[in-house]
Amino acid sequence: MGSEPLLSIRHLEIQLAAARGEKVAVDGVSLDVAAGEVLGLVGESGAGKSLIGSAICGIMRHPARIGGGSIHLEGLRIDNLPEKRMRALRGRRIGTIFQDPLTSLNPLLTVGQQLEETIRSHVPVTRREARERALSLLDEVGIPRPRERIDQYPHQFSGGMRQRVVIALALCADPALIIADEPTTALDVSLQAQIILLLRRLVRERGMSMIIITHDIGVVAELADRVAVLYAGRLAEVGAVTDVLSRASHPYTRGLLRCVPMIGVDVEALEQIPGAMPSPGATPAGCAFHPRCLRRSAQCDAEPPPMRHLSGFEVACWDPHLEPAPAEVGA
Ligand SMILES: Nc1ncnc2c1ncn2[C@@H]1O[C@H](COP(=O)(O)OP(=O)(O)O)[C@@H](O)[C@H]1O
Ligand SMILES: [Mg+2]
Residue 17 — φ and ψ, nearest 5°? Predict the structure, then answer.
């Protein structure tokens, strides 16, 4: 067990039911997350990041379904668990943080009621202990005067404070893994930085693992140890953040980084690379990126590149950049 990764995804496929058959939205994704590691999952909007996050949490809904592959958490296969077991596991071992705090919070219950209920559904504690735990969680996520705030309703909190409450909810059962899907996207820039700092501190102090899902390379640079770049449902490149930011080898990653002033970089629409990412079902033959790639050759149009190991990276490209990225990148 010792060196076994906390989370192990193998050849994951996610299908979308459509009028005519099914479309492949995630195609053969394999990823490991070690204990205590933060993995950034980055790519343009529509790449399949959130689908992968929902597959891990077991909250995939029609028309999406897992079509193949496996997901193991702490050695246990979790992609085919019955709904009830998955629901228990989801709160206990996996905490989730989503973009919009309002989807995670019940407007009709006080923050304290929600925290205490969640704590008691996962851990055998008395009402009193649950309340003490809730207070200490609010304190841990940086909510001032928790004893005054605990009996307030979500609408009485500002956007940034609400996201802190959502983070406290995700921590209720002391999970081993946090899935944070665009946790800062709905916040303005100064609040974004605060939430990033908070997540970084929590991961360090608690020794948790986290998958940070984002279209913002700046968030990855601030938070992640490793980064996986997703394009049209396939992994383009996986490597240590420092390596990928300084010497990205996939032309798509280079495109993402090209105009990047490191913080707050938005790759929602990637204007630096002409063309658009294909939607599921419209993926071109060969490398999915080839129509937009300046380095393409005949092989790229014909055959999808396999994931290859390349001095510290994994890259799916027939002709990866081997030279360091231009000096301004990562500077
Ligand atoms: N419930 C759904 N119904 C139809 N299409 C979906 C659904 N969920 C995701 N998709 C499609 O799958 C692709 C990947 O979606 P998603 O994982 O949300 O992307 P990302 O999080 O990277 O922006 C997109 O083209 C999206 O439109
Ligand atoms: Mg998403």
Answer: -70, 135
Q: Where are the domains of the chain?
A: 82-175
Question: Residue 49 burial by CB count (10 A; 0-12/13-18/19+): exposed, middle or buried?
Answer: buried
pLDDT tens, N- to C-terminus, the chain (331 residues): 457 899 999 999 999 999 989 999 999 999 999 999 999 999 999 999 999 999 999 999 999 999 999 999 999 999 999 988 988 887 899 999 998 888 889 999 999 999 999 999 999 999 999 999 999 999 999 999 999 999 999 999 999 999 999 999 999 999 999 999 999 998 998 999 999 999 999 999 999 999 999 998 889 999 999 999 999 999 999 999 999 988 899 999 988 887 555 444 455 445 567 889 999 999 999 999 999 998 999 999 999 999 999 877 899 999 999 877 665 444 3
Could you tell me which residues are beta bridge partners of residue 169? none
> CATH topology for 82-175?
Rossmann fold (3.40.50)
Ligand sitting nearest the alpha carbon of 44: 1
Give the ligand with the smallest distance to the CA of 24: 1
66 close to 58: Cβ distance less than 8 angstroms? no
Q: Is the CB of 149 under 6 A from ligand 1?
A: no
- Evaluate: CB of 279 within 6 angstroms of ligand 1: yes
